[in-house]
Amino acid sequence: MTSSSPSGQGADYAATASEAYRAALRVIESVEPRVAEATRKELADQRGSLKLIASENYASPAVLLTMGTWFSDKYAEGTVGHRFYAACQNVDTVEALAAEHARELFGAPYAYAQPHSGIDANLVAYWAILATRVEAPGLAELGAKHVNDLSEGDWEKLRAKLGNQRLLGMSLDTGGHLTHGFRPNISGKMFHQRQYGTDPATGFIDYDAVAAAAREFKPLVLVAGYSAYPRRVNFAKMREIADEVGATLMVDMAHFAGLVAGKVFTGDEDPVPHAHITTTTTHKSLRGPRGGLVLATEEYAPAVDKGCPMVLGGPLSHVMAAKAVALAEARRPEFRAYAQAVADNAQALADGFIKRDGSLVTGGTDNHLVLLDVTSFGLTGRQAESALLDSGIVTNRNAVPADPNGAWYTSGIRFGSPALTTRGFGADDFDRVAELVVEVLSNTQPAAGPNGPSKAKYTLADGTAERVRAAAAELLDANPLYPGLTL
Ligand code: DSN
């Protein structure tokens, strides 16, 4: 790890972390040796492969170690200073610290560190919007202060209203997330949903089309953000659209929170000053523990603050403590260098594909991810993903807009730069990664299954996997994961 590494404390830090992990593994081994063995193997596997999954990263030893403590044993439903359980004084400390770092880092009036995941963060946001915009005025209209004060009949009327609201979000195949109103997901069932896509000619978001859809559909919630769209979004424009139709703008920045924190996305591209509510995960480009976070304006803060127990189970206090550590890391100047390198490296990867005739959705990238259409290699995403994995390159298959192969087999492979950038990979390394990916895909052929053509079966030309693994090992050895950490 280089200057962009999460903790540039050097040899002492690595030696101390090594001691901690060695001791922890001995303790685990004394109870269930197979778990200790799998834990050691997981590190070896992560060290030995090119991790290009756009939603993954490597958290620092400080963040990881923080999760392994007795905070895990504590129940703390409620919120800071207002708990349904006794003896939450230390949970209050770490939750307040996580929220303080998040507010400072993102310039948000309010932060909520409890969500266990990105989906949970989005559910908290949706119910905070419903509570603020439907439940509260509904209660006022009925002259009641609390839902428990309502008659059965009035309660049914209010429930019907809560279940009759509209949401407009980005479609899954054009890069939106399941929770942005995809029908099979709870978000598509809670709301009357409609989806906006991208311009079929360019693959870019067409803001006029989003505005037209919003004017026609009049959603209560407009969702912006993505998990597989390789471009930046103009959140000022999204807010204009939301304001014109009276919608609440919710931005899901789970994928690009690190680029916001690192000030790569500023002005109109920074969602926080424009959105009413911004949600994120903490483990992707933000490089923290696995979990979620919600940022909100003063207007929505009181409802978000009731996320537990309204939507969430008891907070994972050990993870909130780790969020505080990770957010403290993200406030350091070196995180900005990291975030810029993430964007530069994604660009180098895209350029590497383009110069080798790869076909990219939108023709390139200006964030942390690249979406390669593998049909030009005669492959499905499923075949390409498996052949790359055989060769030590870890990616995930992903739909492309209007994907003829659907969401399971897909036609695309999504690549992201955050994890390898943490290892210290630079632009030349990412160009070499593009070369290796193209070498694998050019040597992969679709194959038939026992019942005819298959979207999953493939053959990889002899020697390709070994050759690519050896080339990848050179890159990995030059950029070690957790340098100096020995188990
Ligand atoms: N699973 C995450 C991703 O890979 O983008 C989003 O939920």
Structure description:
InterPro entries: PyrdxlP-dep_Trfase, PyrdxlP-dep_Trfase_major, PyrdxlP-dep_Trfase_small, Ser_HO-MeTrfase, Ser_HO-MeTrfase-like, Ser_HO-MeTrfase_PLP_BS, SHMT-like_dom. GO terms for molecular function: glycine hydroxymethyltransferase activity; methyltransferase activity; pyridoxal phosphate binding. Its EC number is 2.1.2.1. The chain is α/β, with parallel strands linked by helices. It has 2 domains: 72-330, Type I PLP-dependent aspartate aminotransferase-like (Major domain) (Aspartate Aminotransferase, domain 2, 3-Layer(aba) Sandwich); 335-478, Alpha-Beta Complex (Aspartate Aminotransferase, domain 1). Helix content is 45%, strand content 15%. It is built from 19 helices and 17 strands. It has helices spanning 11-29, 33-47, 61-66, 89-106, 118-141, 152-162, 186-190, 207-217, 235-245, 257-261, 301-304, 307-310, 317-330, 333-354, 381-390, 406-409, 418-423, 427-442, 464-478; strands spanning 50-51, 78-79, 82-83, 110-112, 166-170, 192-196, 221-225, 248-252, 277-281, 292-296, 359-360, 369-373, 393-394, 396-398, 412-416, 444-449, 452-460. A 7-stranded mixed sheet has the order 4-10-9-8-7-5-6, with helices on both faces. It starts with 10 loop residues before the first helix and ends in a 9-residue tail after the last helix. The site of D-serine has 4 residues, from loops.
